[in-house]
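Reviewers of the previous submission asked for a worked example of the structure-prediction workflow described in the proposal, so we include one complete record here. The input consisted solely of the amino acid sequence. No template or homolog information was supplied to the procedure at any stage.
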Amino acid sequence: MAGLTTGGPNVDVSLLYEINRAARQAPWWLDQTVSLAGEYGILLALVFLVLWCWRGARRQDEAAAVESFAALVWAPLAAGLALLVNVPLREFVGRPRPFKQHEGLQVLDPGIGPEIGNSAFSFVSGHTTVAMALGVGLFVANRRLGYLGIGLALAEGFCRVYTGVHYPTDVIGGLALGTAMVLVLAPLAMALLTPVVRAVAGSPRVGWLVRSKDRARPRPVGLPQAQTPTAGQCPHESDLAA
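From that input alone, the workflow returned the following structure tokens.
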């Protein structure tokens, strides 16, 4: 852990300065846009993607809808678990924010600065962890939207370094933690969630959460039954009688 807490001339610090230098040279409106995107915008976009994926999943057949809905439920649960793991991990590593160890950084996050949040630690990036967990969870439910979600998570990590509040290795740690939390526990989570979601899908009251009304279960269609000939009646006579 000493390598994380010691600020010296290394690739991590060099990348931090290279990326943050763009913030010092960019116009103020671009800096504000990146800051807001990294703090709120990208996470809100990922939530919107989860809701959009849910909307599309409801139009699938029942088996696929149940599987997709269970994966979409697991994505935010995994993100929450990853944040819970991140709390003791930050305390254990105890890595200060970049601006506490290095001068000349442009800190754009209004909630974290040299005077505000001095006690906050840096490793790993909580924003990136949540973004990656949602992105990978989306990938489990829908490959196409999952690629977009993972791309947004990568953009989230870039924004956190751009604004001067995280090292690149903080972001890499967040990407790894979010991915591991989703994929490692996915078999157990899906085994527990799928029966619950299947029961919800079969409920007349809340089944719409899993399947849309226009995809209701088809009712069995009654087939005409062949008439059994009575005693003393030949098959051709029954046909003529009909």
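Residues 113-119, 216-223, 234-242 have pLDDT under 50 and may be disordered. We consider this example representative of the routine output the project will generate in years two and three.
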